[in-house]
Design a protein that fits this description.
Elements (H helix, E strand, L loop, with lengths): L1 H16 L15 H12 L9 H13 L4 H10 L5 H10 L4 H12 L4 H7 L4 H14 L4 H9 L6 H11 L3 H12 L8 H9 L4 H8 L16 H4 L6 H9 L9 E2 L2 E2 L15 H9 L11 E6 L4 E9 L3 E5 L5 E5 L3 E6 L15 H11 L8
Helix pairs in contact: 2-3, 5-6, 6-8, 7-8, 8-10, 9-10, 11-12, 15-17
Length: 379
């Protein structure tokens, strides 16, 4: 008993004897060497109650305000779950909703039972923030996702953009797909959501859902509903490089998954020198039938968790404890092995299978023309 009492007493005495950090010559949130010492100490102590030491809590809070988004930032929040950080954590997540850090922050908010701020934001009048909140909820709310987002998707008072974002998020879960399909088969899904529904359901890993959805939904051949020319005709065309760059950055959504000279997201292969590697014909094939030529180390994997979450992406790491996949949005999702029901390699590419449906024929030709200029220096 004495040993246990001493173990608890010494850390508390250590923090009690530490003088308060002076505010002279430093900003209130500036981290001091003393703060760093305290941080290292509290993280090494098992079952340490942060509320038991005012100096320790002050040091932790200063660190959290100064080092937002760092690995240690998330580690401290996960360990001590200080309620005071919830508001700023929510703001950080919303501002970084398309990044791994933003999703990680949202996961911590729901783990702390503080996800209410994101739920409220999803129904706010600020469309940009509402979409960001919906995206975060889809990544982080777990089994609550359907009950939170299904009513929002059906809310006629919300904008099409927000309702479509809710549908997309619901479509990442089997339970969500099932609810969307019920609305589709009953004829109760709003017309302005049918394109998003087709994307979510026709690409489902559940063959029954995909087959049933195909009886009610379809996607256009091209963005302007024109038939796609044969490959032999496409390779004879020449496009506009400048216009192709714009397609790459906008309608083609290429920069959401690929980097070019340091700009873009690192999901698929870096395309900085792709023009030196592929012929014009091969470039078209890689866009129109990406699964026919998946690059090594960029194969797609899918995970189905015990609670029904479906995750698809590139395999970033696999250990005895967990598996990390990077999805098409560049978000890293780590799943504990004990939570995985199914983990398998897919035959299809993570790249959209029918990218031409987002583009006109001219936009496709311009895009290829631009990518062919991405060559090694001197080529």
């Amino acid at each position: 008993m004495r040993l246990v009492s001493t173990t608890v007493f010494l850390p508390c005495l250590f923090f009690t004897l530490l003088p308060a950090a002076s505010s002279q010559g430093q900003e209130p949130d500036e981290i001091t060497p003393k703060d760093k010492l305290i941080i290292e100490t509290v993280l090494r102590l098992q079952n340490f109650d942060l509320e038991s030491s005012a100096p320790a809590k002050a040091a932790v809070m200063r660190y959290l305000r100064a080092e937002q988004g760092s690995d240690r930032y998330f580690e401290l929040i996960q360990r001590f779950q200080p309620a005071e950080i919830a508001e700023s954590l929510a703001q950080y997540s919303l501002a970084n909703s398309s990044e791994t850090g933003g999703v990680r922050g949202a996961e911590l908010l729901f783990a702390m039972n503080k996800g209410g701020s994101l739920i409220a934001t999803a129904s706010s009048d600020n469309e940009t923030k509402a979409q960001a909140a919906v995206q975060l909820i889809g990544h982080a709310a777990g089994e609550q996702t359907v009950s939170i987002l299904l009513p929002l998707m059906q809310n006629d008072g919300a904008t099409v953009a927000v309702r479509s974002a809710a549908l997309k998020a619901l479509g990442k879960r089997l339970a969500g797909q099932q609810q969307i399909l019920k609305l589709v088969t009953a004829g109760d899904l709003a017309d302005d959501l049918k394109f998003a529904a087709a994307n979510a359901l026709l690409g489902s890993t559940n063959s029954e859902i995909a087959a049933t959805a195909a009886k009610y939904l379809e996607l256009p051949a091209t963005a302007d509903s024109q038939p796609l020319p044969a490959l032999s005709e496409l390779v004879q065309r020449r496009g506009d490089v400048k216009a192709g760059l714009e397609v790459f950055q906008t309608a083609g959504t290429c920069n959401k998954c690929h980097k070019v000279r340091g700009k873009g997201k690192e999901v698929g292969p870096d395309l900085s020198e792709i023009g030196s590697k592929l012929s014009r014909e091969a470039m078209y094939v890689s866009i129109l039938d990406p699964s026919a030529a998946v690059s090594h180390n960029f194969e797609t994997y899918s995970i189905l968790t015990l609670d029904g979450l479906a995750v698809t992406g590139l395999l970033i790491s696999e250990t005895d404890e967990s598996v990390t996949l990077r999805n098409s949005e560049g978000i890293d999702k780590t799943i504990e092995q004990e939570e995985i029901e199914i983990f398998k390699k897919q035959k299809t590419s993570l790249m959209p299978q029918d990218l031409q449906k987002l583009l006109t024929v001219d936009q496709l030709v311009n895009l290829v023309e631009y990518t062919l200029t991405l060559r090694k220096t001197g080529n």
